[in-house]
């Protein structure tokens, strides 16, 4: 049996409130639209997670809400806010679903994405992992606690700009 990870960076956030704490920044209009098209893409491709591990920041929660998916289990985790790649791996190792969506932030998510795959996708935006970037990775194991660096096979990678142009 395999496990599938959907690794998503939050959609574009707003900078319109200068005094607002970074953790509390919401999505902007483009971010809300990006979350919507990413949700459509996930449904079209059949990438429907049964578990979501999401940073507890406002913009990651709003990204998840904009996807309009209905997973069995959702956890909002403070340890995914400003998480390093190693911290993200530790969180993923505790997952229980078969298809897990993990939503977090740069720079940790970019480092995690690069480190978790056997070979990176041939995409010009993969290494900088822009807002809304979404990677789908499959692991040949039936337990998340055995997932290790360089163990994932890329199934898909997309950035919202590509979906908004369709």
From TrEMBL:
Residues annotated to bind substrate: 9-16, 59
Xref: SUPFAM superfamilies: Phosphoglycerate mutase-like (SSF53254)
InterPro entries reported in the protein's UniProt record: His_Pase_superF_clade-1, His_PPase_superfam
Alphabetized Pfam families for the sequence: His_Phos_1
Record protein name field: Phosphohistidine phosphatase
């Amino acid at each position: 049996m395999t496990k599938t990870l959907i690794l998503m960076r939050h959609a574009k956030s707003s900078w319109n409130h200068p005094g607002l704490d970074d953790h509390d920044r919401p999505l902007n209009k483009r971010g809300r639209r990006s979350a919507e098209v990413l949700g459509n893409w996930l449904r079209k491709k059949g990438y429907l997670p049964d578990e979501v591990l999401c940073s507890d920041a406002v913009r990651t929660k709003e990204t998840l809400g904009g996807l309009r998916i209905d997973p069995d289990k959702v956890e909002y985790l403070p340890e995914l806010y400003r998480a390093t790649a190693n911290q993200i791996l530790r969180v993923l190792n505790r997952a229980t679903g078969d298809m897990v969506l993990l939503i977090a932030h740069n720079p940790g998510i970019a480092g995690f994405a690069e480190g978790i795959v056997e070979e990176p996708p041939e995409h010009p935006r993969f290494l900088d992992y822009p807002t809304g970037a979404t990677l789908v990775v499959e692991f040949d194991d039936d337990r998340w606690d055995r997932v290790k660096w360089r163990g994932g096979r890329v199934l898909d990678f997309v950035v919202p700009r590509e979906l908004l142009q369709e």
